[in-house]
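Order emerges. One example.
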Amino acid sequence: MTGVPASAAGGSSGAQGAPGSAAEEPAGAAVSGAQGATRPARGGKLAAAAVNQASVWNVANLLTMLRLLLVPGFVALMLADGGYDPAWRSLAWAAFAIAMITDLFDGHLARTYDLVTDFGKIADPIADKAIMGAALICLSALDDLPWWVTVVILGRELGITLLRFLVIRYGVIPASRGGKLKTLTQGVAVGMYVLALTGWLATLRFWVMAAAVVLTVVTGLDYVRQAIVLRRRGMAERTSVLEESEG
């Protein structure tokens, strides 16, 4: 042991006595310890990589995979028997509702329990856009929803996603409360259109969809504003750093 007090070893002179005693061992021990500390670090990286690879099969990612698998099932149910049978439309609504519910939970689980993976970062937004896009396109193909509504919503979603990637070098545009409200309103509105509603409920779903379209446009413009501000700030900081380095 290298940390024995002098009093316990019979005084300071005893501790510094015979050569080759414990006083000379720490040097070799330090070298081997340093090498040992280095080697496990490399092994630790490999172990961490293995853990990250295994963590792809976690609850959050499984919910995302389920949502992706629901997309073709939803389309089949939506278009079954010509697309206007109330029973098939009810089953399609159930599939759509399950997809929306899993969308609420998978991201929360990933962040809360540290289950975030590269697969989840890519697959989650794809699953979100896929189920919403499939529902909107089916509704427009069946003449239940004007095509311009589908174009506005999907164009906004794809455009903002592309915008996020374009400004990622300057920072991340955070999700706003308006964006979350937009997502909720879109889900409710599309779900109401998937169901074969009549009477006052059909009128209500029109106004819910109108609110969803307004929120889609307003929040989209807000994201564009944030992207412009973020880009200008990033460029200003980069210019300042260059000027300081040159000075």
The first helix runs from residue 12 to 15. DSSP finds eight helices and no strands in the chain.
